[in-house]
Amino acid sequence: MEEKKKKTAFYCVTKLRIFLVALSFAYLAKTMSGAYMNSILTQIERRFNIPASLVGVINGSFEMGNLLVIAFVSYLGAKLHRPRVIALGCAVMGLGCFLIALPHFLMGRYRYDNSISLLENSSSTIAICLANQSKFSMAMEHPSGECKKSSGSLMWVFVLVGNVIRGIGETPITPLGISYVEDFAKTENSPFYIGCLQIATILGPLFGLMIASYCAQLYVDFGFVNLADLTLSLTDARWVGAWWLGVLVCAALNFFVAIPFLFLPKSLVKEGEEENVDLGRKGNKTLVPVEKAAQAKMKIREITKDFVPYLKSLFHNRVYVLFLITTVLQFSAWIGMITFMPKYLEQQFGISASDAIFLIGVYNLPIICVGYLIGGLMMKKFKISTYKAAHLGFWSSLTEYLIYFSAFFMICKNVSVAGLTVSYKGIDQLSYVETSLYANCNQGCGCSTKVWDPICGENGIEYISACLAGCEASNKTGKTMVFTNCSCISVLGVSSGNGSAVLGQCSREKDCDTMLHYYLILSLVCSLIYSFGAMPGYMVLIRSLKPEEKSFGVGLHTLTARVFAGIPSPICFGAMIDTTCLKWGTKRCGGEGACRMYDSDAYRLLYLGVPAVLRALCYIPGVFILLILRKESKHLVGENIEMEATEGENAPAERKDVAEQNDDVQNCTSTPPETTDAIEVDFKKN
Q1: Whole-angstrom distance, CA of residue 46 vs CA of residue 113
Q2: Where is it located (predicted)?
Q3: Of 38-47, 191-200, 653-662, minimum mean pLDDT range
Q4: Second label for 546, Cα 20 to 30 Å away, from 198, 204, 218, 348?
Q5: Is 331 helix (H, G, I), strand (E, B) or coil?
Q6: What is the C-alpha to C-alpha distance for residues 111 and 220, in angstroms, rounded to an integer?
Q7: Which range among 26-35, 120-129, 153-162, 181-190 has the greatest average pLDDT?
């Protein structure tokens, strides 16, 4: 009989461990998908030829999907077969990823702006600037009726809907997975198990960023086109990587991790209580504890009757309300920044999307882990009180905020583009109008301003096309093409006759590489300092709630952050970034497409300045939180002193009990399961 019990216990414990391993892979899959999607937004913008504001809508659609089912999951999730609901969620995430990649197979091959290829013939030397080229210009600016019918492609809607579905599928994984572990794991084992899950939340984004970096190096239609014929470089504003490939990898992984959950039971024997298995079976009783079964039978009205009282109690909690305001402001700043951070590195420092994604993963992720670890150990070793934790979080954030201002001085000068950032005579002159692209030197060429096919002149100035540079001939083919007899380039007197140019964008200044390294080091330092105070700061939220309010309070905190920060922030940031565009791309059949070039100075001021203002505002409620906690801390100490004075020496046991209670309140260091979501959001911010 004893041997049978041991086998049963081993069997149940093994299933819990299998669930934990499966849940770790589910965490890995969902965080990898999220990091990958966030990293390829620039590729999506270029592939579908859409503005950054629309890209922000696509990014925020994930949170919209979350909100659609979060109430349903929160209420009914624990009453259903939780492993199977998680399996369904993983499968839905896989379906969402598949829908995101589907447009690649429906749109045909990617065709980028290329004025040269339309004029090429069999000869090695071709005419560029010709009077009759106006016919070509008119054809580009006034598309035929047949072309107009196919214009305004809405294939990006597949990406939007797929991201919404991905958000729906992600919703049950964390709450149901954590509650399942909490229900059937030993109390002392639960923190360790949840800590193991956090490894997956860091490895997932790391893998996602590395895959995104690799895919961004591959041409979008690799395997179907001759790469030798491409005239694009990785830093070209028209370059689109194989964004769809990594999405399919994420889809396959999500489908795969759903399989183990289908074979796991609805309930298990709680660790350490295996000896009661036989008694439970003889009495034909479920393995779920009695109180859990009672909760499952509660009516909706019995649950909702506590909703209003809890809500009133939370909004009468001054620390909680102030923390909500702080969260919305900080999340609005961080989510907007991380959404467009790869784009910022590309535009500001002139690096490729692949390098930008790789550097973010290498410089930010490992140091964030170190910051969380140090902050958690500090809380545990020194038994930091709520008041001290609030100070630790506040001053860490403020220190990082002050250091953050150094980024404003890490400047990389705008690329010199004739008609946009400099005049055709080489004088600095910023212009947002297309008429400035014309000059006396290219008047007779009949050039179109709609085509973006840049060349770099020997004078160091970039021109948006060979025609607008006044080039009359070219030789060689592909990326090695050289343009000669360029009348606009000779205006500066760099050459004795008409100047020459090579295909592609001009290289950025050497100072840009130095500034990039400074910026990455600054990012590393800021990530370390901020993540160090993230856990103590979050514990202020947890400890400000009554035990019966914690679940509802943390859920409302997450909901508020998503509604007021997660959704609007990327949309607003995208719209602001669009205002800094100097040259818009043009859709093949007419209409404004993706931006080809930004005013890097204006981009930097908006990208860094708006978060700076939002974060400055968040320190106002932060100061009030410190004042409230200081007052409560003094009041608590005063009560203890008064109690000790009135009790005298006759009640040592009572004083000991009071002291133990105060220590429990002030020195609580356990991290509840709800912090899993917060840690993921904190990572996304950084």
Answers
A1: 11
A2: Cell membrane
A3: 653-662
A4: 198
A5: helix
A6: 10
A7: 26-35
pLDDT digits (tens, 9 = 90+) for 399-429: 999 999 999 999 888 888 888 888 888 788 8
Comparing 642 with 120, the larger pLDDT belongs to: 642
User: Which among 544, 538, 192, 536 has a CA at the least distance from the CA of 382?
Assistant: 536
Q: Phi first, then psi: what are they for 213, rounded to 5°?
A: -65, -40
What is the CB neighbour count within 10 angstroms for residue 586?
21
The share of the chain scoring above pLDDT 70, in percent, equals: 76
Closest to 365 (Cα-Cα) out of 479, 594, 207, 504: 207
In angstroms, the CA 555 to CA 542 distance is: 11
The kind and range of the H/E element at 585 are strand 581-586
Pairing type for strands 455-457 and 499-503 reads antiparallel
Residue 6, classed as helix, strand or coil, is helix
Q: Helix (H, G, I), strand (E, B), or coil: what is residue 595?
A: strand
Instruction: Give domain limits for the chain.
Output: 1-107+153-272, 110-147+416-507
Q: How far is CA 251 from CA 44, 50, 169, 255, 608, in A?
A: 17, 24, 12, 6, 34
Instruction: Give the pTM.
Output: 0.81
> Looking at residue 481, what is its pLDDT?
83
Among residues 180, 166, 8, which one has the least CA distance to residue 84? Answer: 180
- Distance spanning both ends of the chain, measured CA to CA: 55
CB atoms within 10 A of CB 109: 8
Query: What is the Cα–Cα distance from 368 to 38, expressed in whole angstroms?
Result: 18
Let me know how long the chain is. Answer: 686
Domain 1-107+153-272, CATH: 1.20.1250.20
Identity (one letter) of the amino acid at 484? Answer: T
